[in-house]
Amino acid sequence: MFWFMLLMNLLIPLVMILMGIYFKKAKLSEINPLFGYRTRRSMASLEAWQFSNRLMGSYWFQFGWGLGAISIILSLLLKDQIEYGSLFILFGQMCVMFYTIYLVEKALKRKFGN
To answer: What residue ranges are annotated as transmembrane (predicted)?
Structure first.
């Protein structure tokens, strides 16, 4: 059971790393209404779209590695209570993901205004 829960705890960091790589390197030639970092500010212009997706990719790549390491450490520390510990880990991962949205929106506001 522990190994399965550890794998589940690593899903979000792995997705963040892989999506981070994709968005850092992607050639985004047009605003996509279905895929990417889509907010009012990021979709205001093609320049804002490309900037926000690259920045989000960079943040997700960096934070994904950190979350992966922290998730492994916390999973090992909470091995006896892994079911409840995984909820704690998941909550922390979600907080970090929302924090990256805040960081990108702040950078968009600083660079493009509004």
So the answer is: 6-23, 59-78, 84-104
Q: Are 59 and 100 in contact (CB under 8 A)?
A: yes
Supply 1's token pair.
């059971």
Contacts of 102 (CB under 8 A, 6+ apart): none
Long-range interactions of 94-102: CB distance < 8 A, separation 24+: 94/12, 96/63, 96/67, 97/12, 97/16, 100/56, 100/59, 100/60, 100/63, 101/39, 101/56
Shortest CA distance to 59 belongs to which of 87, 17, 26, 91?
17
Instruction: Give the integer Cα–Cα distance in Å for 2 and 12.
Output: 17
Contact (CB, 8 A) for 26 and 53: yes
Q: How would you write the pLDDT of the chain (114 residues) with one tens digit per residue? A: 889 999 999 999 999 999 999 999 888 889 988 889 999 999 999 999 999 999 999 999 999 999 999 999 999 999 888 888 899 999 999 999 999 999 999 999 999 986
